[in-house]
């Protein structure tokens, strides 16, 4: 009989980033994993060390019965935000999901950005 112990992959307390890239990676992972509320997610966005990233509180809003509603914190690059939304929309459309996806984002310049798409109308907006 083989017994496999559950390996410890990552310990936040023991991880000490050594360069800018590692610092940013830790910040992005923490935004995604540790933000359970909109307030916490948006606060993390204001503390990101890279100007090209933002932390977004996103919500799935079903537009038909039987759809699942969900809320989560997702980091996005500012420079590719609209392109990323289009990829998400296409993925949902492949699954025939009828929904609106809305994100409220913050960055280290304390700027709020709203991004959304609708799989029925194919409309994507970033404002």
What features would you describe in this structure?
- By secondary structure, the protein is α+β, with helices and mostly antiparallel strands.
- It has one domain (18-126).
- The chain contains 3 helices and 5 strands.
- A 5-stranded antiparallel sheet has the order 2-1-3-4-5, with helices on both faces.
- A hairpin with a 7-residue loop joins strand 1 and strand 2 (70-77).
- Helix 1 packs antiparallel against helix 2.
- The model has no long low-confidence stretch (mean pLDDT 85).
What's the gist of this structure?
The protein has 127 residues and is α+β, with helices and mostly antiparallel strands. The protein contains 3 helices and 5 strands; from the N terminus they run ααββαβββ. Strands 2-1-3-4-5 form a 5-stranded antiparallel sheet, with helices on both faces.
Secondary structure blueprint with pairings:
Elements: H1 20-34, H2 38-46, E1 53-62, E2 70-77, H3 81-94, E3 99-107, E4 112-118, E5 124-126
Antiparallel strand pairs: 1-2, 1-3, 3-4, 4-5
Helix percent band = 25-40%
Q: How would a textbook summarize the main sheet?
A: 5 strands, antiparallel
Number of structural domains: 1
Provide the gyration radius in Å: 17 Å
Give helix and strand order, one letter per element, not per position. HHEEHEEE
What is the strand tally?
5
Can you tag this structure with a few keywords?
single chain, 127 residues, alpha+beta, five-stranded antiparallel beta sheet, 5 strands
């Amino acid at each position: 009989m083989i017994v496999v112990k559950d390996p410890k992959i990552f310990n936040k307390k023991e991880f000490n980033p050594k360069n800018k890239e590692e610092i940013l990676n830790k910040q992005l992972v923490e935004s995604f994993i540790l933000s359970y509320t909109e307030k916490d997610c948006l606060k993390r966005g204001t503390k990101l060390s890279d100007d090209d990233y933002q932390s977004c509180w996103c919500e799935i809003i079903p537009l038909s019965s039987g759809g699942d509603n969900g809320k989560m914190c997702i980091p996005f690059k500012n420079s590719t935000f609209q392109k990323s939304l289009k990829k998400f929309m296409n993925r949902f459309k492949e699954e025939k999901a009828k929904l609106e996806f809305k994100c409220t984002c913050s960055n280290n310049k304390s700027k709020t950005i709203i991004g959304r798409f609708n799989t029925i109308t194919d409309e994507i907006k970033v404002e």
